[in-house]
Recover the amino acids of this structure.
């Protein structure tokens, strides 16, 4: 292949986690990191170590576990941040420190209260300090899309001289337009004398729905790294979606002078994993990974595809992982088949005892539905992981809903080992259960999101419920899965309440401004 390589820098574990309610545990970060490594992502940004002890430990665990991909830690241009990042990634086979400071006039004046000269000096110092830990240093001028081009040229030239070997240009607030962003990338590479000593990168937010378009415009103008996330996850409207960037470059090799090394057949599985762990469902019409991405209902389209696939499909569904594995488990499947399928899905259980418990849950599910698909297994494991360290547990639920009558529920919970029961009414069976649970727990939490999605097809499919609660400025997601959607709803609500009642081990990544 004669084209240049496009480096794929995945920041699902860092920027993706900035979505309200999307915080991940250390074990969940490791699961996603392993899936990204299997997909052959070049760089995995594992987190922001200075944010908390928990985030430091999560980044450290990923750095020690991942062998093939480069593991990156984010740090502000501060000595304490950089030292903490360096400590977190020291066990990695290949390590990177990504440091940043704001360069737009509004950020320098209103947030940093620094002059451009002070910002320049701090950026140089940060890169030089990062070089104590690794020679793989990335620098980002935060809010580059609204920065003055002359100052960008000045600071980028200086940090390259100081040792930065990747220069990332972030559109932090999703403000730029594709043509102008592409021109900015070309101008920076042309005007900066030592630009040939660094790989230029791009990191775009999706506030105007242009993150992927801006990223690809930058690639066409010389960027050779794209920072992106699975499913476009990220704060506010999200980031550039990895699957869209990668498949655009792969599909349009007649246009793009570069290629990626990703195993694209892992995209769908990775998408589902991130969705299950974060509780952020993928919309059906989402490009590449949405349930309708390769569906054709129009008779004209169906006829065309049947005659010749390329009439209406520009990609093969199999190339991104759809229908790549049709192995189906059922109630007659043994423990070894169950174990091997989990392994293929990058799901590793902590011990034989945990495996036995998961297998028992699998058998229970197999009694309820005839065929168990990969999505069912991922939902089963995600649902099982929510039961660890519970203070609140469901003992019994009874719901009555009939035409012309107000639905009511009878709820029995165990709270810190003490059982309590209550009867409650609501506008529907789920509302009645939620009211009953809240009356017993008295969390004073506000329900922000209630979302129901089918895990697989068919009337016997598991329903996966996501509940988002807000309590004293803390936002959490709860998840629950069951073939009975009412029970799944109760599981999700209680899962969210258990998170609210759990002491915060990690400060939310949004506590500090990031690129």
């Amino acid at each position: 292949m004669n084209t240049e390589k496009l480096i794929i820098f995945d920041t699902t574990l860092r920027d993706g986690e900035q979505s309200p309610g999307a915080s991940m545990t250390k074990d969940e970060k490791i699961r996603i990191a392993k899936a990204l490594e299997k997909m052959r992502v070049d760089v995995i940004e594992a987190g922001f170590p200075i944010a908390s002890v928990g985030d430091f430990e999560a980044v450290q665990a990923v750095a020690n576990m991942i062998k093939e991909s480069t593991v990156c830690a984010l740090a502000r241009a501060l000595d304490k941040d950089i030292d903490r990042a360096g400590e977190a990634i020291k066990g990695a086979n290949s390590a990177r420190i990504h440091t940043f400071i704001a360069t737009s006039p509004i950020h320098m004046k209103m947030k940093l209260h620094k002059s451009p000269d002070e910002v320049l000096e701090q950026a140089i110092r940060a890169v030089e300090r990062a070089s104590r830990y690794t020679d793989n240093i990335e620098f980002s001028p935060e809010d580059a899309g609204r920065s003055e081009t002359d100052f960008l040229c000045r600071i980028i030239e200086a940090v390259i001289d100081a040792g930065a070997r990747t220069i990332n240009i972030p559109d932090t607030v999703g403000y730029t337009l594709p043509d102008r962003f592409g021109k900015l990338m070309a101008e920076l590479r042309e005007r900066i004398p030592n630009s040939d000593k660094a790989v230029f990168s791009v990191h775009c937010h999706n506030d105007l729905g242009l993150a992927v378009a801006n990223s690809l415009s930058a690639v066409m103008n010389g960027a050779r790294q794209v920072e992106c996330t699975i499913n476009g996850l990220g704060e506010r409207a999200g980031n550039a979606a990895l699957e869209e960037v990668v498949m655009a470059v792969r599909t349009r090799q007649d246009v793009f002078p570069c290629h990626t090394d990703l195993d694209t057949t892992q995209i769908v599985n990775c998408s589902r994993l991130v969705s299950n762990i974060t509780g952020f469902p993928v919309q059906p019409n989402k490009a590449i990974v949405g349930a309708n991405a390769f569906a054709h209902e129009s008779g004209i389209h169906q006829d065309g595809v049947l005659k010749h696939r390329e009439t209406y499909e520009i990609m093969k569904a199999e190339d991104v992982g759809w229908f790549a594995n049709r192995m189906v488990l059922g109630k007659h499947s043994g423990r070894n088949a169950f174990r091997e399928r989990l392994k293929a899905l990058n799901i590793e259980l902590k011990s034989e005892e945990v495996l036995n418990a998961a297998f028992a849950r699998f058998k229970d599910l197999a009694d309820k539905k005839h065929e168990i698909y990969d999505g069912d297994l991922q939902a089963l494991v995600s649902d099982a992981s929510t039961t660890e360290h519970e203070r609140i547990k469901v003992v019994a639920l009874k719901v009555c809903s009939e035409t012309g009558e107000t639905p009511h529920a009878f709820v029995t919970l165990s709270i810190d080992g003490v059982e309590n029961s209550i009867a409650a009414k609501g506008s529907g069976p789920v509302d009645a259960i939620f009211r009953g649970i809240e009356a017993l727990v008295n969390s004073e939490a506000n329900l922000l999101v209630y979302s129901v999605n089918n895990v697989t097809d068919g009337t016997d499919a598991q329903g996966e419920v996501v509940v988002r609660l807000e309590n004293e400025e803390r936002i959490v997601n709860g998840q629950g899965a069951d073939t009975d959607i009412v029970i799944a709803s109760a599981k999700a609500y209680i899962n969210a309440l258990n998170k609210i009642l759990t002491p915060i081990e990690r400060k939310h990544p949004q506590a500090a401004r990031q690129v």
About this structure: The chain has four domains: 4-278, 294-325, 335-385, 392-501.
